[in-house]
Every structure is written in C-alpha cells, then in structure tokens.
Amino acid sequence: MKNSVYILEDRAILYVHGLDAKNFLQNLISNDINKVTNNSSCFASLLTPQGKFLYEFIIVKHKSGYFIDCEKTQSEEIFNQLKLYKIRSKVEILNLSNEFVVASFGYEKYLTIDGSKDTLGFTIRYREDPVILDPRNRALGARLIINLEKLYLSLKKLNLKNDKIENYYDQSHKLGIVPKNLNKLKNKLFGIECNYEELNGIDFKKGCYVGQENTARIKLKNKLSKRLLPIQMIDGKLAEDEKIYCNDIEIGKVLINDNYPFALVKFLDKNFDKNQTLKSKNGTFKIFLPEWLKI
Questions:
Q1: How many domains does one find in the chain?
Q2: Spatial separation of the C-alpha atoms in residues 200 and 34, rounded to whole Å
Q3: In which domain, by residue range, is 85 found?
Q4: pLDDT tens column, 114-134
Q5: Residue 279 pairs with which residues in a beta bridge?
Q6: pTM score > 0.85 for this model?
C-alpha cells in the first residue's frame, strides 16, 4: 500500500558525535564514512578482526555526529563495542532509543516528498528529520528517523497510515534481505558472505578497518563460495545450525530458523540446484536467489 508506514519498534538509535567521530567510525566500519553527508547515508557493518559478521546498521548524518540505526537486540552490544574501541578518541556515544524511532514507508511515497531523489541512500529532511531512501535496496522504501514526540504529527502530514510490522518483514524476506534476528548470524559467516557488496555495505577502496584484510582477500582471490540466502519453506520445521542437503549431499546450513529463515549455502557447489527441493532433518524447502544478487 502506497500510504502504509511501519513503525520499526525493533530498531534502536545510537548517536556518535565529537571531534573524532568521523575518523573513529572510519577505522571501524566496512563502508566509507565519507559517503555520509547531510544528503547521503550508508549501510555498513562491524566485523571481527578475522572478517566475520558481528553487527550491521545504517549510518545517517545528524548535527555534529552520526545516527546509528541498528536492530534493537544488537544495540547494547554495538554500544559496548564502540566504547571498547573509543580509548582516547574525542567521541561520545549515546543510546537515544527512548527518544527516537524509525518508521519505514514505500518507495513510491518517498518520491512524492519535495526534494527526494531516486538515489540509494539519498537523504532529505522532512520537518528537520532525516528521510533516507534505504541504501541497500530501493524496494525497502524509505526510513524516517524522528523524535517519538513528533512521530504521529509527521505521519499525519504525510498521510501515512500505520501497518503491521510483519508486512515489512515479509517484504524484506522476499527481497532476500534479513529483516531481524541478526544475532543468529554473529561469528558464523564472513561479512562478505552476507552479500554486503551487493547491498552497498562494503567499500573496497577505503583504507583499513576491522576485518578488512580477510574481506579483501576473499574478494580479490575469488574465494567467495558461500552466501547467505533466503529459505522458502515447503513443509516441516527448521532448527538453527542444522545441515542442508541436496540429493543427500550437504550444501549448507540453517542460520536463521524463525519466521523469516536464511541459510549459508555453497552456491557454487555443483550439487546445489536452486530449483531443487532441499532437505534438513525435519523440513523441506527451497533456496531462492534474490533478483539483485547476480550470481
């Protein structure tokens, strides 16, 4: 629905600001902080030194610092991780989740707002609050980050009507983009295996960041043989970390087993056939390849 809006109550907002905020984030995140301006936001991740996935988020310029729009279940850990790296940097990190909220609405509606531009990550201000065309994929629509006290007046002025958050999750899963349960991915796969290159979450031209060496090596040496892909259930149920078989050959494992399931799949394996029905211990399903993933 063009006028639907989803209040993403499962998202949190952290705020990083101070004299060293830009350089501080640049040394940590997988993307280039220089892409983040008053008119542009980016998608990025925090990885382990080995390049394994830890956290993902959207970074938005706000006043003298940066909003970090992240999954609420990961927010406390992200907050602590940033504080751990802070050391002597002139940076302050705040959790503003009790004050700010994230609302998502459709791409078509976004284009009707004055000043909008059909560029991923493009950021405008609506009544002083940032509206971002999702930097991962325009089919995810736009995000409004706004003070809770102003939320409903802005939604009314935009003629947006509250819709079920499950519809947003469904849409994201059908696109092949993980909508929730990101903690189930922690340390289980490399960031590049999360399709971050295709989702505009990795910059291979920027300097060093945590996990950069392995990420670059996998890319440059064509070592990317597994990818995080969405599961389309046929029957039964899934368990986290259980193995996936195609014609009795193991070709991956389930990482997210809940309502919006994903698996880490050996997509280059000669035994993997996306048209085949796959099996786990107690379930049958298919793996579907998102349109934006050109493999």
A1: 2
A2: 14
A3: 4-175
A4: 999 999 999 999 999 999 999
A5: 245, 284
A6: yes
